[in-house]
Write a structure and sequence with these properties.
InterPro entries: Bact_solute-bd_prot1 (IPR050490), SBP (IPR006059). It comes from Mycetocola manganoxydans. This is Extracellular solute-binding protein. Keywords: Signal. By secondary structure, this protein is α/β, with parallel strands linked by helices. It has 2 domains: 198 residues, Periplasmic binding protein-like II (D-Maltodextrin-Binding Protein, domain 2, 3-Layer(aba) Sandwich); 209 residues, D-Maltodextrin-Binding Protein, domain 2 (3-Layer(aba) Sandwich), CATH 3.40.190.10. It contains 19 helices and 12 strands. Strands 3, 6, 7, 8, 9, 10, 11 and 12 form an 8-stranded mixed β-sheet that branches. Strand 1, helix 2 and strand 2 form a beta-alpha-beta unit. Helix 9 packs across helix 11.
């Protein structure tokens, strides 16, 4: 990916580059820690395998390079992270370094005075390697409050073997073609699409993408600014989703299926050839690899963009995704914490991150290590996308995002409608 392409991400606005002194190799005394030993806490969501090993190794390397600094790491399961982190923030006992994904969720943390402004603490090496459009995913009012680690556009992952067995020769480019693929897979005795609706957000992703097809970029941006959802496209997206759900494309028991935990999760069903497709972000190849019988990448894993939908105002090729990263707490030791953020953004660590998580690193100099065919397909589509918007629950913040996700799950369960989704979101926005 080049700078021009990456600037499209999230339409968050440009951030002015500043020439800064490097911090990554500083010792605590050099970094202004008042001469004493420093201990920081670090929460991430890699509980097993290569991801956890990566962070353990990276932390050890940082501690070796910075005598007197200790980082105490806690691994928290992904679906538990938001809740535990919010509780910690509310209690005033937040970790020094914690996960961030930008958007309204980060804006809420910043508004509460709980995140560190690192704008002037990003070193020159990181500035040169990470495009402004990616850094600005963590920008609030022109200030940067987090360091990105991965670029994570979404789309549909699929098993090439199961597609071939069902006689599907081309990946679906339109919603009608996706419906045809669903019918062929059913005819072959295969669950067409896995979805972890138990965790809410995977089901809600389906609404998000229908909204990207139904709503223009201006409408999406305006809704994020005003928290008003009166454009008819929001209802159109819900109705299109409702019609699709009525075709019964999902795995048996999808309402009680988790997203990433074990062979019975939606990722596990794809990993073990029990379902043919899953709508997910660019972290999925690594999750799937951890759930295959030999815990290796799925050889036939492919990817295609969310299909185009007739009648919508979204520009063809528009994508949705996010940027994963980490934020320093406002109460963290400033220079030691920012030094750690700069440290793991070095090319060698971003390469290790990409390999451990089977994903697309934010440092563009490290992207040459990406070999996974599904990820390469994502990069190609991303390079051609007219714009990329962030996941809607992230964009709209915790309260509105949770209402949206719950409304979508209710629709999946047959207990709600497209109108109910829009009403729930509007009600949550009105409450602030």
């Amino acid at each position: 990916m080049n700078n021009r392409t990456m600037r499209k991400l999230l339409a968050a606005g440009a951030v002015t580059a500043v020439s800064l002194a490097g911090l990554a190799a500083c010792s605590p005394s050099d970094a202004g820690s008042e001469g004493g030993d420093v201990t920081m806490t670090f929460w991430h969501n890699s509980t097993t395998g290569a991801g956890k090993a990566f962070w353990d190794s990276t932390v050890a390397d940082f501690e070796e390079a910075n005598p007197g600094v200790t980082i105490k790491t806690q691994s928290i399961q992904n679906e538990e992270m938001d809740g535990k982190l919010q509780t910690a923030l509310n209690s005033g006992d937040a970790p020094d370094i914690f996960m961030a994904r930008g958007g309204g969720k980060l804006a809420d943390v910043v508004a509460a005075g709980q995140a560190m402004d690192i704008t002037d603490l990003i070193d020159d090496e990181t500035r040169a390697a990470v495009p402004e459009g990616v850094l600005s995913a963590f920008a609030i009012d022109g200030k940067i409050y987090g360091m990105p680690t991965a670029v994570l556009p979404g789309g549909i992952y699929y098993s090439g073997d199961l597609f071939a067995e069902a006689g599907i020769e081309e990946t679906p480019a339109t919603l009608d073609e996706l419906g045809d693929a669903v019918d062929k897979l059913k005819g072959a005795g295969v669950d067409p699409i896995a979805v972890g609706a138990k965790d809410a957000w995977p089901a809600a992703h389906w609404y998000y993408f229908f909204a990207v097809r139904a709503c223009s970029q201006d409408t999406l941006n305006t809704a994020a600014e005003t928290m008003k959802f009166d454009d008819p496209c929001w209802l159109e997206a819900g109705q299109n989703l409702s019609d699709f759900v009525d075709t019964e494309p999902f795995n048996n028991g999808f309402l009680t299926t988790s997203a990433q935990q074990g062979a019975g999760s939606s990722a596990g069903l794809l990993a073990n050839k029990q379902a043919a497709m899953e709508l997910m972000g660019a972290w999925n190849p690594g999750v799937i690899a951890s759930l295959t019988p030999d815990e290796k990448p799925l050889p036939d894993l492919g990817w295609f963009p969310f299909p185009e939908v007739d009648g919508g105002e979204g520009e063809p090729g528009a994508m949705m995704g996010g940027v994963d990263g980490f934020t320093c707490s406002a109460e963290a030791p400033q220079e030691e914490c920012s030094a750690f953020l700069n440290f793991f953004m070095q090319k060698e660590y971003q390469e290790g991150y990409a390999e451990a998580f089977q994903t697309i690193p934010a440092n563009q100099d490290a992207q040459e290590v990406v070999e996974d065919e599904a990820l390469l397909a994502i990069i190609e589509s991303y390079n051609e996308a007219p714009y990329v918007t962030v996941w809607l629950d992230t964009l709209f913040g915790q309260n509105v995002g949770n209402a949206l996700n719950t409304g979508v799950v209710d629709l999946f369960a047959g207990q709600g409608s497209a109108e109910d989704i829009v009403s729930a979101v509007a009600d949550a926005a009105a409450k602030g």
